[in-house]
Amino acid sequence: MITNGDDVRIRKVKVLGDRARERADQMGLEENDLVILRTHISSLPTYELEKIEGSPIMYLQQKITKS
């Protein structure tokens, strides 16, 4: 899903590209962790990762109701 020039996806850490994977490694994430990957698109993309804790559906529902 692309919003405001940003791309938001849910991915497992093991499928992330080089720069996003480097960010995941810095955060101490494991290969099978599920993350929300936000790619901010500018001259050079930047990546923001958020680890999904527990059930992905419940995690997303809680994020939506908090907003």
Polypeptide structure, described:
The protein has 67 residues and is α+β, with helices and mostly antiparallel strands. It has one domain. It has 2 helices and 4 strands; from the N terminus they run E-E-H-E-E-H. The longest helix is centred in the C-terminal third of the chain and has 11 residues.
Features:
4 strands; alpha+beta; four-stranded antiparallel sheet; 30% helix; 67 residues
Quickly count the domains. Answer: 1
Helix content: 25-40%
Average pLDDT reading: 90
The rounded Rg comes to 12 Å
**Biggest sheet: strand arrangement:** 1-2-3-4
DSSP strand (E) fraction?
Answer: 25-35%
- Counting helices, strands and paired strands, the structural category is alpha+beta
N- and C-termini, Cα separation: 18 Å
Kindly state the number of beta strands.
Answer: 4
- What ranges have pLDDT less than 50 throughout 5 or more consecutive residues? none
Shape: flat
| Main sheet summary | 4 strands, antiparallel
* Element-level helix/strand string: EEHEEH
Count every helix, treating DSSP H or I runs of 4 or more residues as helices.
2
